[in-house]
Amino acid sequence: MQEKGSISIHTENIFPIIKKFLYSDHEIFLRELVSNAVDASQKLQKLSTIGEFTGELGDLTVRVAVDKEAKTITIQDRGIGMTSEEVKKYINQIAFSGATEFVEKYKETGEEGSLIGMFGLGFYSAFMVAKEVDIITKSHTGGAATKWTCDGSTSYEISEVEKAERGTEVVLHVADDSVEFLEEFRLRQILDKYCKFLPIPIAFGTDTETVKDEEGNPVKDEKGEDKTIEKEHVINADAPIWVKSPSDLKDEDYLEFYKKMYPMGEDPLFWIHLNVDYPFNLTGVLYFPKVKNDFDINKNKIHLYSRQVFITDEVKDIVPEFLQLLHGIIDSPDIPLNVSRSFLQSDGNVKKISNYITKKVADKLNEQFRNDRENYEQKWESIGLFVKYGMISDEKFYDKAKKFALMESTDGKFRTTEEYKEQFAATQTDKDGNLVVLYATDLDEQFAFIDAAKQKGYDVVKMDTMIDNHFINGVEQKLEKTTFKRVDADVVDKLIDKDEKKESVLSEDESKSVKELYEQVVDDKSYTVSVDSLGTDDLPVIITRPEFMRRMKDMQANGGGGMMMMGGMPDMFNLSVNANHGIIQKILKSTDEAEKANLAKQAIDLAKLSQNMLKGEDLTNFIKRSVNIVLED
């Protein structure tokens, strides 16, 4: 019996549409066809479990084979199979209502991706690479086997054929523009990418294995060489860790799985095992990696699966931005795949899943903080980047994270914001009632300023990561009566202004004279000169950059959005002359104008040197001048 007919679809151009819109993802044809074979095998297992199939299940391995000479790829299963009527129903009658209209709408969004998952067209992805496709299938219920053939047009042929075993073979006659898929390494690459965690064994190619005796020693052949055998290569030999119960797993299991996923990565800090079936289905394992000070390197390490089939590592529309620093797997059949990004972002399940993961992450961090704070603090270098990123990008996470977010002082002590407030409110509150948090971004370069602050009994926290400028700006708006000031943004008495005026040894006229001298010597409009009453042990001149300008420059240096305009703005500095320093008295007593200018210039250059601002010719002149001053003395 042979039958011919036309595939029932609502557009004559379905195959060109499939080819055109799926071309960028054309390798997924293998994922779709293998997934179909796995589904057929699992359906048979289910029927056997409930007693509707009483035959022997036997070997359910799905086998993929390539014949380079014949230009064919075959995907074979021993699953549920199909009758002739089922072939007509499931293969010929494609529910594709309104296809043309949808494609036009889809094209307008500018989104690239797959239409297959949206319309249940998994089988038809075969025509992305094949000029002709054969289906040879036999139902588990018995009866004659059926062969269905289509050349990519809407016409097909169907006939009875001989087939000994139940199940389905899909044979792709590969088109000339897709011969890359006839290479064994290419197919193995795709199978490893998409299918290595499927629940039914997937076999492709062979492995050479050395034969060993009972004691594990190699068996020799007649030539005295190690005897080898060829064995089927199983893509998915290991069951994925996320489908197992956490109670059945040890730390070693999680670490071993991580090494398989990220063989070049360091061991993770800790992990979360996700397992929820209401109001959505979600499983997975998320790892906290040792985060580098470069977020781009750490992103795109979460793999999205659907029923153990790999979908993508682009999860930015499913997982909040800061959670993309995590590594691991999330698996959910409830995430709509292969649709436009705007639809994905508005999907209710996606939002619920995103919120759930955020909550689980926050709970895990809080648990780590409360149960083993010492260990948590030791890992803060990596955890801190992650937590700070989350606090400035996700309001809900901020509300939870403020309990376990830490500030590390330059002396290595860790405190939450509440602990910091309790400990330093008495000493670091300014005249307006604001708690002033002094911070440093470079402990070596800002050492003199840190030391000056400590001499006053003040604490200085370390804020030296690429995200800290953004973090400071974000939390400063949320913390009540708290401000952050970089330790070298001004002289320490002005950073925490307590309205305590120090007596100056200079008269008003002397202060005016000193100010005019330094303005003349510095001769740079980017400097604002002031004469201040500082300690006799402080430097004669202190150069600082105002806090606002420092923040803008730092954010610009770290690629801060919207800060590029700062590149065109002139720099601004405060030059504070210490009225109570001995050099100032020496300047005032001198009657030689050249000597006065020389002393003033030397004090300015000392201040620049302490800020790593003295370079080139100015540095050379400073060294020569210093030598002359020593010789004169």
Summarize this entry quickly:
With 633 residues, the protein is α+β, with helices and mostly antiparallel strands. It folds into three domains: 2-207, Histidine kinase-like ATPase, C-terminal domain (Heat Shock Protein 90, 2-Layer Sandwich); 241-370, Ribosomal Protein S5, domain 2, CATH 3.30.230; 508-632, Heat shock protein 90, C-terminal domain (Four Helix Bundle (Hemerythrin (Met), subunit A), Up-down Bundle), CATH 1.20.120.
Walk me through what this model shows.
The protein is of the alpha+beta class and 633 residues long. The chain has three domains: 2-207, 2-Layer Sandwich (Heat Shock Protein 90), CATH 3.30.565.10; 241-370, Ribosomal Protein S5, domain 2, CATH 3.30.230; 508-632, Heat shock protein 90, C-terminal domain (Four Helix Bundle (Hemerythrin (Met), subunit A), Up-down Bundle), CATH 1.20.120.790. Helix content is 38%, strand content 20%. A nine-stranded mixed β-sheet has the order 1-6-5-4-7-3-2-8-9, covered by helices on one side. The longest helix has 24 residues, at 348-371. The termini are far apart. The model is unreliable at 95-103, 105-120, 339-344 and 561-567 (pLDDT under 50).
Q: Which keywords apply here?
A:
Heat Shock Protein 90; 22 strands; elongated; alpha+beta; nine-stranded mixed beta sheet; 633 residues; Ribosomal Protein S5, domain 2; five-stranded mixed beta sheet; Four Helix Bundle (Hemerythrin (Met), subunit A)
Furnish the topology, listing elements before pairings.
Layout: E1 2-6, H1 14-22, H2 28-49, E2 62-67, E3 72-77, H3 84-92, H4 99-109, H5 116-119, E4 130-138, E5 145-150, E6 155-161, E7 167-174, H6 184-195, E8 202-210, E9 228-234, H7 251-261, E10 270-276, E11 282-288, H8 295-298, E12 302-306, E13 309-312, E14 327-331, H9 341-346, H10 348-371, H11 373-378, H12 380-393, H13 395-401, E15 407-408, E16 414-415, H14 417-424, E17 435-440, H15 447-455, E18 460-462, H16 468-478, E19 482-486, H17 492-495, H18 508-522, E20 527-532, E21 541-544, H19 547-557, E22 573-578, H20 582-589, H21 593-610, H22 616-632
